[in-house]
Amino acid sequence: MRVLPVIPLLCGLVAVDAALPGMARAGACPPPPDHSEALTRLIGEIRAAPDEGSGQALSDQMWALWTDAPDAYAQELLDEGITRRGAYDFEGAIKAFDALVAYCPDYAEGYNQRAFINFIREDYDAALPDLERAIELSPRHVAALSGQALTFFALERMPEAALALRRALDLNPWLSERHLLPALEAGEDEL
């Protein structure tokens, strides 16, 4: 029996059999969990929410769905990236999210999180393709839509920013970014 080495991945320990020459990683990433029914229910509830506090509680439940990774390995990578982002280790976070996207190319949150890091670093051009992919994989990903709106805004692409924000607000009218819509719409008129 061959024992696979355990090497550090960022700050966690993960068995990395893909690093061994001539061997493939044991198993591929499974499909992301299907939370479509729960998301539909939450979108209905958040649209009917009576106040911002209620809306925020429902938004937190949406985040729990989006951050439910396809398997334990993917969850480790996601959690590692989020932890590193929280510690302002953006390079380490990018490495974790790069690994997550490579392992689970059909999991929207890997792209969304990597885009967020690039947004924080003000690399808006790098953030956009990841946001587009996240939205392609999860069209009702409110955070990716609002992130796309903010990225377009930073790039002074007001019509696209307003469109993305309207799409996000249609799904969650309690987003804090809702206050930007009048400015974005005014920017649309100026162009």
Automatic annotation (TrEMBL):
It holds the Pfam family TPR_16. This is Tetratricopeptide repeat protein. TPR repeats lie at residues 108-141. SMART domains: TPR (SM00028). The keyword Repeat applies. Keywords: Repeat, TPR repeat. PROSITE patterns: TPR (PS50005).
